Structures are given as structure tokens and as C-alpha cells.
Amino acid sequence: MTDNLTTNEDVHDKASEAAKKPKKKKTALNYAVSLLLKLLCTALALWVIFTFIAGVHICHTNSAYPTIRDGEFCLTYRRADLKQGTMIIYKHGNKVKFGRVIAFGGDKVEIFNDYIAVNDYGISENVVYPTSPEGSAFSYPYQVPKNCVFVLNDYRSDISDSRTYGGIPLDDVEGAVVFTMRMRGI
Prior knowledge:
Umud Fragment, subunit A, 4-stranded antiparallel β-sheet
């Protein structure tokens, strides 16, 4: 029986000796490597999000006024299903532009004074400014090319949209605007 007690005491002593051993101290190098790995993982996650899922832009024009004003911060969703009336951000040349989707590839667009028809059906819009075909580079009816969208500015007096450029390729669409925040005057 004493052997059994001795054995238990020996095990307990060995365990207490192991607990008393000093733990390996972290060095500055260990902290630096740990921080670097965390920063790399964060940077990779942000790169994936802002390359494939979301986009961040600041509006530097009044072409989307009153929906989006000059100086507003805009967040886009790149994977959104575009629908008629969706506010989008797209690239034309080296410029970022803001506009509203009116029609898709294969649709026929007609612009009359204060009236827009897509495939011979008038569309309902909540746009303050009247739409006019004046100054347009195209004659109407206009057939939107495949894999393109027809985009109009909300500030319809500014014709730097599909009335000037024609159909906007879907590859140039940055995404649908899902959030705006006023940055000026705060």
C-alpha cells in the first residue's frame, strides 16, 4: 500500500515540477511575426471583398443629382442583379460615372420629350428632370447592343450617358449603388 502512495506522490511531484518549469517567453520577433500574419490575413480578406464583392467610390459630379450629390461616399455591390431603375456606377474611358439603368441588351429604347419607352412600353420613373433626345448622338429608336445596358443620368440635362456613349458594356459596370453617405458639410 505504501508503494501505491509513493507512486501517487511521485506523479504529483513530477506534475508540479513540470508546472514550475518556466514557459518559453515570447520574443519581439514572435510578436512581429504574429502581427505580420494578422495584417496579411486582413489585407487578403479586404482585397477579396473589394475586388469581387464591393466597391467604394466618391461622386465628383452632379450627373446623378438629386439621388447622389457631388461629394457623397458610395458603396456598390458588384454581384447585384441589375434591374430597370437600378442606380449603377460604371467606367467610361478612365472616368467613373453614375447613372440609372433604363434598358438591357436587345431592348429598343425611344426617347420623346419628357417620355421614355422601352420595347414600346412607357416606363415609370421618379426623376425630377425632364428627359429629352436633344443633343443625343443617336437616332431613336435605339437598339441596345447585347451584353450592354442603356444608362441615363438622373440629372437629365447632362447628356454624358448612353445618349452620347451608346450602350455601356456590362464589363464596365462597377456595381449597383447600395449605400450613400454625405461627406461634405458634416
